[in-house]
Design a protein that fits this description.
This protein has about 130 residues and is mainly α. The protein has two domains: about 60 residues, 434 Repressor (Amino-terminal Domain), CATH 1.10.260.40; about 35 residues. Helices cover about 50% and strands about 0% of the residues. It is built from seven helices and no strands. The longest helix has 21 residues.
């Protein structure tokens, strides 16, 4: 979602982090799992008691926002589109009914379980082919 006008009520890092997290429909716990930043650190950032973060890139990636916007409030919230076109289907998100944010909000163990399950299903389908 591209926001065409400036957002005036997100002047601080804390406000931008809270805004982006809510826009993505993530809880603090889900953002913590997706970014590898503790939930308590995220809560501290959002309430303004912790002012700066060295984990800005991890948070920005998990929220799919531009890290410069998140840290400084300049530029567009949405990251710039990828500079290169997709080379093949392997570069694209493979699921139409599952949002990438929902997947990345899962823990590493949960994501591994999904990968293992899909891999097993793919091998079974290949085995059924003539």
């Amino acid at each position: 979602m591209i926001i065409p006008r400036p957002i005036t009520d997100v002047d601080t890092f804390a406000q931008r982090l809270l805004f982006a997290r809510r826009m993505r429909g993530l809880s603090q716990a889900a953002l913590a799992r997706a970014s590898g930043v503790s939930q308590s650190a995220i809560a501290s950032y959002e309430n303004g008691s912790r002012k700066s973060t060295q984990k800005i890139f991890r948070l920005a990636q998990a929220l799919q926002v531009d890290p410069v916007w998140l840290s400084m409030g300049t530029g567009a919230m949405e990251p710039a589109p990828a500079a290169r076109p997709l080379r093949d289907a392997a570069d694209a998100w493979p699921f139409s009914a599952i949002r990438p944010q929902a997947y990345w909000a899962l823990s590493a163990a949960e994501r591994q379980a999904i990968e293992d399950t899909v891999g097993t299903m793919m091998r079974a389908f290949r085995a059924l082919r003539p």
